Amino acid sequence: MIKNKCIHLVFVLFLGLISCENNKVVTYSFYHWKTDFNLSKEDKLIIKNGGANKLYLRFFDIYYNAKQNKALPIATTQFKIKIDDVAKDIIPVVFITNEVFNTLDESACNDLAKQVSYKIKRLLKTHLKNGNSCSEIQIDCDWSRSTKHKYFSFLQQLKTYFKAYKLSATLRLHQVKYREETGIPPVDSAVLMAYNVGNIENIEEENSIISASITAKYLERLSDYPLPYDVALPVFEWAVLYRRGKVVAILNQYNSEDLKVNFKKTNTENIYKAKHDCYINGTFIYQSDLLRTETVSKNDLKVLSDIIRKASQHPYETIFYHISSPLIKQFSNNELKTYCYY
Fold it and tell me: What φ, ψ does residue 135 adopt, rounded to 5°?
């Protein structure tokens, strides 16, 4: 009798665990990376369906200006619509080239932190209203061993201007595997960028955006990375333009008609050769230039996400890059959830 009761209890607990697993809420969010903030109704619905009610919004970039010997902001986002009905939580993101920290001295880098904080605060004051909130600031920089000290000093200084905010930084695969050389950034959390892992300069590269085999080589130490982290996955496509074997442009917008009219197929499946001089979205293309198209398939994304989930061994938020990509519309809400940690 007691044995039967124990069996019954184990069975009930087992059913309870299955029920909890099935009822688990899986949420995800997005990056917005265009200069114009002008989302369609469909874009807004996609963000809403993610359930996180959060948007990582690139505010501006910082590049080194050699003529002025300064690091200057460029490509500040132009707000064509209000943020109000897009997401409750807005996370400003600032992209900074590694050249900035390669070139400036530490004093100038600390001064840059002050200027960056002022610009972020001005944009927040202007555009964050009517119930929207901001609790986090994110810096995107692919720092290196030689720049880590100045970059980390910049981050520490920036934190003093945002004491009430969480500070996060993006993280590349090599910075996970070789953390002793590249260091651990002095931030509250990180976001692992699991894309753009191939060698875009190599014309023979199959797909520089996504590669599960390359990514897997860098994940053996992911589970014990000493910062809390989330994961950014790619849902975008582009075409890389080569001239005399060198990259001269990336076409973020093109279509099948552009390829049909202006290019001919080569013996390699995703590489095309220009038939004549032409323009595509403002980029001039010479006859005989080569174009490699790169995209992210549902199967490739599933394989990649499974590898990361297995390597992580603990929950993380999934952020898709990026909401303005036409490719995102080919993925359903349920499909996107399968790429998240659950």
Answer: -120, 0
- Is 58:102 a contact under the CB 8 Å cutoff? no
Cβ proximity of 174 and 199 under 8 Å: no
List phi, psi (to 5°) of 204. -90, 0
Q: What is the DSSP letter of 188?
A: S
The single-letter DSSP state of residue 327 is: G
Domains along the sequence of the chain with CATH: 26-236+295-338 (3.20.20.80), 238-294 (no CATH)
CB 283 within 8 A of CB 188: no
Q: In this predicted model, what pLDDT tens digit does every residue of 10-42 receive, in sequence order? A: 454 545 544 444 567 899 999 999 999 999 999
What span, in angstroms and rounded, lies between the C-alpha atoms of 27 and 336?
9
Rounded to 10°, the helix 106-127/148-161 angle is: 40
pLDDT digits (tens, 9 = 90+) for 146-185: 999 999 999 999 999 999 999 999 999 999 999 999 999 9
